[in-house]
Design brief:
Distance between the termini: 67 Å
CATH class of the largest domain: Mainly Beta
Strand content: 25-35%
Largest sheet: 5 strands, antiparallel
Strand order of the largest sheet: 18-42-41-40-39
Helix content: 10-25%
Structural class: alpha+beta
CATH architecture of the largest domain: 6 Propeller
Length: 923
Amino acid sequence: MQLVEGAKDTVVLGTNKKGAKFDETPEMRVLLDYDFWMDVRGVTCGDFMSVLESSTLVKNLDCGKDDEPIVSITFFDAVLYANEKSKNENLDTVYEYSKKTLDKAGHCVGLEGFSFHLDKEGFRLPTEAEWVKVASKADGKNFVFSESVKEFVNDFKGLLNNSIVENFAGASNTNEADERIVKGGYDYDLSSINLYSRSDIYAVTPSTLADYVGFRLALGAIPNATFLDQGGKKVNSPVKKVASALNLWDYTKTSKVKLVFKNEATGNLNYIDYTKENDVVEIEDTIPAYHPDISPDGSKVAFCTGIEGVDQTSRLYVRNLDPNGSGLVKLDVKSAAIPRWSVLVNGDTVITYVTNAGDNSNDKTFKSASTWQVTFMNGKFGTPIKLFDGSYHGGISEDESLAVTGSKVLRARVHKKEKTWYNKEQACNVSLAKDYSKRTAFLDFGGEIGAAFVGETYRVHEYLFIADSSGNLVQSVRAPEGFVFDHSEWATGRVNQNLVATLTNVEGAHSKIVLVHLADSSVTSLVEGEELWHPSLWIQGKSIALSSSSSWVSSSSQKSSSSAERIESSSSVKSSSSSVESGRVESSSSEEVASNSSSSRDDGKSSSSRNGDESSSSSSDNLVENFVLDEDSAGFYVKNNEFQEAHWSYKMELVWTYSDQADVAILGSSRAHHGVIPSLFSDKFFVVNFASAHGNLHSSHYMAINYILPHYKKLKYIIVDISFDRLWLTKENSFFYNSSPSIKGYVYDANHDFWKSGIPDGLLEMTRDVPKVSSYAANLTERGYMPLRGCSEWRGSPRPEKDKNWLDTGRVRLEETMGYLADIVELAAQRNIKVVGVEFPQNPNYKNVDAYGKYGLRNSDAPEIIERLNGLAQKYGNFTFFDQHKMGEHDYLEGMNYDDDHLCRTGAEQMTHRLDSLLKTLE
């Protein structure tokens, strides 16, 4: 490492170049006034393997020479390396997490509750500004950067602004895609490092693996780090979101989740809408805001100006849960504190409140206050109605037979009779479950009853206690090491095992908000900050029930069992290649399969079986069973929402959306994904684009045999992207070989033979509901096509990114991949479906270096593949080879390409019109 001194000169991030990516503009100047240390060169294979020598990853890693930069590791792998190195040298660890997820090779692809603390003196990834500062003076300071290796930096990816920012440390929270920044690589002319580039062609996430991305480390605390939110606004003390809707699914069973809380550092309410995966939103106002509670429909928030345990006048307000906090209304009463929403049996939405939330240990003072209820409709309060004397601000049960309160005594009103629970020991933060269980959650002060229940003495608020409807303790949850609880509240929603609370650290700061899940006593971090108070967590109620006309048609051999089942169809590749390996999987979830005549429904009623109609079944002779989908698995096509997962999850939504409409299906890689526009085909064709980034012929084969051919009964054409230069990508390079066997939705499909006997009712809806990265939802807007913004010119001196001689040693790979294509053609022929194999155009200047395309192959090797494709067309009359690259002699002109191997919108329009014309000739 080498010392880098703080200075008053500025570092330039971003660029003002015309046509630059929107998140790489404008130029932003950064002042770094602190000293730090930086690795002179990237972490090497030898370094990495020596520090993590006992890890599963190192045992499986084919790293290369000890002095070569480590690549093909994830951002999270780098984080674990940094932490381990800090431990080895007795330094603080900068990175914090609660649980890690490893893939089968040992790569870390997920860190639950991930956060970083730049004020700690430990090893970490450098910030983008630190990296640029060092790289801009690399020649004079002996720092070494590689022309072919990009490097992870620490920052969350976000927007830049045109001001001067001191000690900039990236975005305050992740964007929707959870992107990270990679730096490095040389400009097109190879003369200098590209300092402003922040990304790759595809989104880079913490679980991204690429053979050209590595990292180096920095050492040193960053004083007064400044962040920008996702809107580009400066944030000096950010509230950091550390859990996504996907992280919370196991606890909430829905993506429709909202969290609101008070940021005591600013005095304002903050909220997160997990449905939108937005940044933390702050509602700026001058009104003191305590004890917020989200309305039953999730659209509004009620709050008060008083606080539990303090004898004071309080005002009650309601406003919309939006960035402006619009629709603000005030309840016109003398005093109202601690609002709680509920819906009465008659359907009225009401707010319950108390006139005073002060110390309730004195009977006279307690009874001088009272509990009230007021309707709220069309943005207005109704007339308040007094319920009873006493300040029962902990909540009232639906049948009004139980009301509770605390601070300092745990009091209850049971069937109109006042009781004191918990032997009058001190209790606070009392909250009644928002269901019919009548459970009460509360915190205490290390009393005798609690100590007897947990079997040890403990600190104030160290345990969260749950009491039954009689006030008897039934459960406790201990706070994580180094913290105690505060501000505990039951979450609102159909999964009533969840509470939300703040955690107070040893310094007394309310630095975290957590979800407490009673089913397993787990504590999951939601957000971190300086002072976070009074959280309210809203979880939309959800019920999945089969309609009276819905059924799942199943052969008797399709019942779920614990035995392994095939993840690929039983058909084998018929060409000269070896047969397709059929991955085998175990069921990863519980399922409810009905017995002969009826099945359990979520509403508790039974639904009798009925014959499935012909439209949902491939065989009228099948045994008919009603089927309840497992909500933990059905449609759950994501695990970490990594880039490929996110893309494929939207493709699966398309699969279940258009199964009874489409007659043309497009399969392939990003070249087809960005290069064919379904909406531009003639009206006689209904086209859906199932191609996806990093797709190859194995993934096309997998989609075709398991989803498209079995379910698309109107299918007439399959358009398959061939990509000669990518024919070395076999099943080992396929998402469906590497990733899908560990993702619940695909396993669930496989264990039910991919629903080939009929798509179950509710599968599409559940697929839509699973949390997905919304920035990739553009997959849905044009039936799978995603345009690449910006058109450019073909580069004059492109270089292939893979050895162009790979066919010399990779012929077995060619045989395998061509076999997948042959199998698609043969299976399609059995249904009189025509297959068009498309070769997309690439930079014509590759031919100047005897390269076929971006990933190599000699130009002289291509005719052999063309001959084989022509032979496939002769053998199967349903196959047509459509060559648009033409050995580089194509007519896709300047301004039709996005980069060396992708078309922009203009080029995609030309490709689409030509495919449309071709299909008409095949009619």
